[in-house]
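quick one before i forget lol
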Amino acid sequence: MPLYDIRCQHCDGIFEQQLAISALSTEISCRYCQQQTLAKPLLTGRVQFKTNYKWQPQSKAEQLAGKDISGPGTEKNAARNSVLHNCKGMNCSVCGI
């Protein structure tokens, strides 16, 4: 039997209860206040999201640096991949500065 988190309608206490699927939406006894409450499980746990689009790199530069990059070597068929260079703009042969 699955384990469910149930919230009491009377005392707002949350407790775990093993219930058969057929026992959902029936009256059960609250562990805290001992009153009858509706066995309506809370939405808890892990949620998975389905994605319809998976990003694919269009060049070696995007493969290394990620999506939506710009700079030298980021063209689709660039011969030189210099996206990750660290020139700081001083006498760089790649940037031409």
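fyi Residues 42 and 84 are 48 Å apart (CA to CA).
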